[in-house]
């Protein structure tokens, strides 16, 4: 059985690779004259069949990425479940392309792998532009409605082809922001990391669209045709006013997403981004249905992903308990289904209607699903309006000693990698700044829970930088782990308190600090809440694959059916008419109807298909809730951990009034290593901290080279990972 499963996984991986390479190949050969002629012949051959040209376009251009998503979900469902170490990646001679290559405050930390991907994409854009423009300049055709000079005509054609580059960016734009249907998990790339690919593609899209639209408006202006052309909603061909609307909405979304606006006025960014619906509809009417089939995969998966998130977030949970820390941080505990498993460093999106009905905020999960089977915990630092409101609500309940009625919490997620990827390393070097400690709380609890199953991981060091003594309270959830040995794992902690001075009469060791910490625990829920308001999490990978299949079949069926009804085709026997149509002598059936009709067919088919997918997801969610409530319940352990009974094993350090010097810390850490070691360097904290650690990793490791411990007498192979979450 094990061999058959391995063989199945291998076949699925091969199939995914073939689909991906096939879709990329289509993009590469798309601008060539040979492909254009061959594709026109294929469309002419099949457009008089039941399948139609629209079915052919959908099957060839749109279906491969959607099929890749379905196969990827099946592949993830067959992977060994959680807590199974991946293959070790730190042996001698290991080639690594994920190390930091560019460290810049503007674009962030860019890995070697990302540089390769960006260069290949830019090369593809250059090839597409060159092939199209070269062909256009060889066969210059005058614009019927305008008398343009030769240079104006050439400039106009070049500007038109910039639209194709914007189209290429748009076709990939929505893939990085998928959550439940994310394909980046296949590459062990978390949602938090893939969001910036969306930013890069969006910036490229706006740049090429501005050149395309601005140059077109420039030509119309100097030839005095702007008023005549811009307001046209012609029966066939490009709808220019739709292009202007698309450009303006896209530019507005891009401007409000700039860090200067997004970080200070997040709600402005969030609500303005909902203009994507108007943007996509306008693009469809402007570019036409044939260009839109390349965009369909991202739009289709994003729409289904969005509706699945809405279905899950409609389920309500209740706050069971909370811990108020003196550093004005709060840990909230929610009930969950014991069958819900998630990997460390996973995150959730949280909405509390009592505070704000519309605001959703992401938080790293601080609990472990194998330690806390019935609960899920997350921690927030109260520094903004929303988090302060949550803190005050809970604090008022603690002071008045009254339970908060109907403290409803809506949760979306958890989202994370499908396996404990960090376990593959021999050593972990964890760096946290302030509230950046949260993902490491879940990681360390996971390590403590499966310590006897750790085969390669032997050492871990946590470096925590905080501003005040009180912020060390955020270590309380892992108090028992810090001061009790973990089987087969050596753990050491260094805490740096940067803005305090040492007091002669104060505690001097970490155990004393945490033992004297002021923590207020509040119980808000009842035993009934465990069964009625448990978080069930997203659907299983197999059910998600089934939902994608049902939705895409519905979309294809509606597209073909509605197209046959609204876009009548000529009879096959009219061979002469077909030949004349192919030569352009007469209009084809597609051209006899207004160009916006096929566009409306796509919109209606898409809307109905996504609705069907949402209804199916709602039915599955209702069945899961019913089965969970009717299933026999395990006894829930709600006993508080008594920290005072623990016997501290003090090996940890506190440095007061100092900032961590990562180079010195890592050099000291290296001295204690025995033999060659693969080190996973995980960072969560301010950008300056991430950049400092990334620079250290870059200096000690080659980007594309093969590591050889004998070359530099170093015993480490550093692998940098950032766990920060930024929208």
UniProtKB/TrEMBL annotation:
Q: Which residues cross the membrane?
A: 7-29, 58-80, 101-130, 158-178, 199-219, 239-256, 268-285, 544-567, 600-620
Q: Which Gene3D superfamilies match?
A: Nucleotide-binding domain of ferredoxin-NADP reductase (FNR) module, Translation factors
> Keywords for this entry?
Membrane, Oxidoreductase, Transmembrane, Transmembrane helix
Name the major location: membrane
Report whether Transcription shows up as a keyword of the record: no
Q: Which ranges carry the FAD-binding FR-type domain?
A: 312-421
Q: Where in the cell is it found?
A: Membrane
- PROSITE patterns, A to Z: FAD_FR
Question: Superkingdom of the source?
Answer: Eukaryota
Q: One Pfam annotation, family name?
A: NAD_binding_6
- GO-annotated molecular function: ferric-chelate reductase activity
Q: How does it sit in the membrane?
A: Multi-pass membrane protein
| CDD domains registered for this protein in UniProt | NOX_Duox_like_FAD_NADP
A single GO cellular-component term on record: plasma membrane
Classification via PANTHER family: FERRIC REDUCTION OXIDASE 8, MITOCHONDRIAL, NADPH OXIDASE
Q: What is this protein called?
A: Ferric reduction oxidase 8, mitochondrial
């Amino acid at each position: 059985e094990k061999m058959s499963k391995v063989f199945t996984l291998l076949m699925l991986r091969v199939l995914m690779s073939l689909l991906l390479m096939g879709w990329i190949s289509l993009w590469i050969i798309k601008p060539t004259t040979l492909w254009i002629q061959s594709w026109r012949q294929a469309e002419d051959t099949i457009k008089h069949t039941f399948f139609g040209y629209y079915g052919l376009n959908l099957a060839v251009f749109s279906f491969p990425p959607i099929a890749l998503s379905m196969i990827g979900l099946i592949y993830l469902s067959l992977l060994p479940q959680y807590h199974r170490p991946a293959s070790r990646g730190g042996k001698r001679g290991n080639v690594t392309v994920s190390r930091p290559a560019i460290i810049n405050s503007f674009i962030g930390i860019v890995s070697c792998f990302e540089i390769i991907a960006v260069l290949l994409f830019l090369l593809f854009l250059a090839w597409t532009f060159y092939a199209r423009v070269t062909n256009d300049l060889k066969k210059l055709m005058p614009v019927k409605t305008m008398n343009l000079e030769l240079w104006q005509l050439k400039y106009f054609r070049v500007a038109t082809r910039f639209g194709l580059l914007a189209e290429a960016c748009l076709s990939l734009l929505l893939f990085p922001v998928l959550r439940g249907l994310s394909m980046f998990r296949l590459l062990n790339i978390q949602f938090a990391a893939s969001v910036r690919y969306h930013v890069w593609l969006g910036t490229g899209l706006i740049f090429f669209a501005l050149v395309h639209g601005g140059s077109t408006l420039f030509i119309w202006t100097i030839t005095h045709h702007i008023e005549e052309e811009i307001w046209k909603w012609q029966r066939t061909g490009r709808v220019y006013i739709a292009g202007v609307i698309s450009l303006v909405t896209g530019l507005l979304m891009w401007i409000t997403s700039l860090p200067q606006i997004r970080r200070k006025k997040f709600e402005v960014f969030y609500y303005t981004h909902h203009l994507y619906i108007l943007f996509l509809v306008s693009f469809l009417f402007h570019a036409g249905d044939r260009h839109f089939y390349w965009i369909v995969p991202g739009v289709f998966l994003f729409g289904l992903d969005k509706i699945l998130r809405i279905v899950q977030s409609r389920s309500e949970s209740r706050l069971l308990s909370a811990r108020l820390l003196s550093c004005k941080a709060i840990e909230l505990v929610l009930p969950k289904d014991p069958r819900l498993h998630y990997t460390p460093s996973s995150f959730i999106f949280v909405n509390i209607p009592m505070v704000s009905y519309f605001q959703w905020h992401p938080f790293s999960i601080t609990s472990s699903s194998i330690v806390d089977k019935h609960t899920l915990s997350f921690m927030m630092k109260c520094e903004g309006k929303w988090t302060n409101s949550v803190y005050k609500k809970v604090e008022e309940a603690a002071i008045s000693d009254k339970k908060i009625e109907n403290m409803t919490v809506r949760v979306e997620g958890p989202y994370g990698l499908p396996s404990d990827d960090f376990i593959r390393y021999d050593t972990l070097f964890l760096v946290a700044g302030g509230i950046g400690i949260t993902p490491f709380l879940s990681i360390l609890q996971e390590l403590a829970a499966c310590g006897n199953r750790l085969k390669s991981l032997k050492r871990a060091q946590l470096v925590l930088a905080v501003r005040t003594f009180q912020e060390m309270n955020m270590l309380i959830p892992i108090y028992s782990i810090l001061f009790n040995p973990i089987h087969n794992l050596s753990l050491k902690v260094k805490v740096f308190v940067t803005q305090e001075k040492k007091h002669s009469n104060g505690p001097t060791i970490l155990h004393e600090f945490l033992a004297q910490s002021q923590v207020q625990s509040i119980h808000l829920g009842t035993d009934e809440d465990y069964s009625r308001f448990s978080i069930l999490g997203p659907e299983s990978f197999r059910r998600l694959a089934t939902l994608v299949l049902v939705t895409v079949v519905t979309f294809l069926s509606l597209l073909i059916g509605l197209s046959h009804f609204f876009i009548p085709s000529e009879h096959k026997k009219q061979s002469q008419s077909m030949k004349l149509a192919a030569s352009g002598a007469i209009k084809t059936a597609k051209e006899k109807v207004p160009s916006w009709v096929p566009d409306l067919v796509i919109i209606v088919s898409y809307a109905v298909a996504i609705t069907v997918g949402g209804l199916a997801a709602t039915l599955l969610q209702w069945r899961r809730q019913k089965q969970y409530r009717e299933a026999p319940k395990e006894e829930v352990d709600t006993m508080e951990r008594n920290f005072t009974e623990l016997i501290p094993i003090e090996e940890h350090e506190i440095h007061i009034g100092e900032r961590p010097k990562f180079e010195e810390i890592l050099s000291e850490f290296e001295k204690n290593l025995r033999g060659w070691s693969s080190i996973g360097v995980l960072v969560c904290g301010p950008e300056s901290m991430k950049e400092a650690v990334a620079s250290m990793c870059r200096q000690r490791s080659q980007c594309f080279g093969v590591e050889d411990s004998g070359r530099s007498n170093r015993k480490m192979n550093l692998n940098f990972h950032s766990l920060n979450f930024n929208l």
